[in-house]
Amino acid sequence: MDISTTSLLANQLQTLDPKATAKENATKIIQDTANIPLSLTAQKSTTTPSNAQEVIGQLLGSAVSEAKSKSTIFEILQNNQLFKNMGNFAEDIKNLSSIVKMDSTIAQPLALLQIFSKSIDQIDTKILQTQVQNSGVFFESKLANIVTQKGVQESIQTLLSELQTHLEGTSKAISPLAKEITTIMDRLNTSQDLSSKEAQTSLKSLLDLFRQSVKQEIAGEGVATFKSVYQNVQKLNYAIAQMDLIHSKVENYATNMKVEEHFTTQVKVLLEMLKENLGALQLDELQPQIDQLLKKETLLKEPSTEAAPLPLTEGLEEVILATKTVQESKSSMPPETVEEALQMVANRIKQQIEILDSKTVQQADFLDKSSALEQKIHALIKPELFVGKTIAQKLSLDPTDVELLSDMKGVLTKLSDHLQASGQNKEALEITNRLLTQIEYHQLVSYVSSSTHLYIPFSWDGLKGGSMMMKQSSDEKFHCQIDLDLESYGKLNMMLVLSGEKYIDITIASQKKELGEKITQQLTKLKRALNEVGLITGTVKMLEYKDVSVVKNDYFSGEKLQFGINIKI
Q1: 565 Cβ partners below 8 Å, 6+ apart?
Q2: What pLDDT, in 10s, does the model give residues 192-218?
Q3: Is 37 helix (H, G, I), strand (E, B) or coil?
Q4: Of the four listed, 327, 367, 435, 467, which is most buried by Cβ atoms within 10 Å?
Q5: Where exactly are the structural domains of the chain?
Q6: What is the pTM of this model?
Q7: What does the alpha-carbon distance between residue 497 and residue 336 come to, in Å, rounded to a whole number?
């Protein structure tokens, strides 16, 4: 079971290093330097653990050997007093950076620690994502993927398959380019044998050739007759899809922002442009519907009328017949809402374009797919994705040289080894090991609770400590629990549930009534901020505070995680 840095590095070295002596020496180095012993027999201890590090070590052994169930281990982690105050991770990092004396052997780890030390006012979406990825919680799975280049290899194989399918339907005029693309793809398919520089050069050439082939294909087919009309239909469909978000903004933004008015104006401009082309499209019968929409004061959708209940029947045949009758009558009825009317106009024009000039739709679909593939190629043009061979070579020489990954656990492991060897700064070593224990605590909680458990990866004045717990449930909803311990306001628990990629429900419980009142006063600002990133707030509940361990035991038990820490059995 690949659960610790120790076992992972040992297993990786056994597959990467051909020399048996080197393998034995490397394994010995790892066992001597890592916090968690490699062999399961080393876990068997009759002594009672006296600190969090020892408890984590024993529980990791129990998880590996399955001596205890996940639920039992989870309960211990939640209730053991040694874990009630794990400290403030971000503040410990700051303190560690200030007390460790700089020398050439630890210059890189210290520089990376300073990069990790981010304040909340420096955090944006991209930085937060990076902080989470490099938090140390995903260290083992990330190291395994980078060394073996498994993730990159899978991405390249998928890309190659999609490119081949995409180019199969193109004209003969681009076949010379297609052959060059195929040659490069075959070379990339053996990316494990390529250096980072070779892989980057090949991907850049692939991107250039692909762009040329797309341009040549479109130029060879000529300009589509209804290209601009079809683009306006796509814009109208996008506007229809944004209606829920616009409704939410209308509720949360000040009236003088005129959100609804701006939306209506933009949709009416699209309708006017589509109306001008009805004659060419042979769709004059649509003009009354468009005129009716243009006369409306607002084009935001109205609440839909509920369907009439089906009559109570005794037999199954009657139920099926009644259902069919309702569906048929509904399909023949005129649109009841603005949304339905707009969608009908968009669908009818799109269908007519497909009849009169199918090339317009084909070109649009080809360009959309080409754009998506271009983004996938561009996303692979990153030198750090192809360093597996280099890292494997360096690890075979020095198994503790893991700060290469710019990962918190790797950096702290390297620093701990140096401090332990020098024996000069016991305070720094104590903080370093405490931080490593915190990371392994979060890793273990993640594993036994089938979730992703993480410390707060940034500093925040007034924050004593905190954690985040994330999971994807079986109903495709994403859940995030945030627990904060604030110096002035006590403890705060928040549960966020994301569904349908844009609808979010929030439950908040504060230990102190004063904080709950302040949050209630600022809810409109919170909803507005969520709107700014494309999220629509559903329900927001303010509840009585419950102990975090009780909440997590109730909520995170029994669900299968679909993402997060990659621990293999």
Answers
A1: 137, 138, 141, 443, 446, 447, 452
A2: 666 778 888 888 999 999 999 999 888
A3: coil
A4: 435
A5: 35-138+407-555, 303-336
A6: 0.71
A7: 32
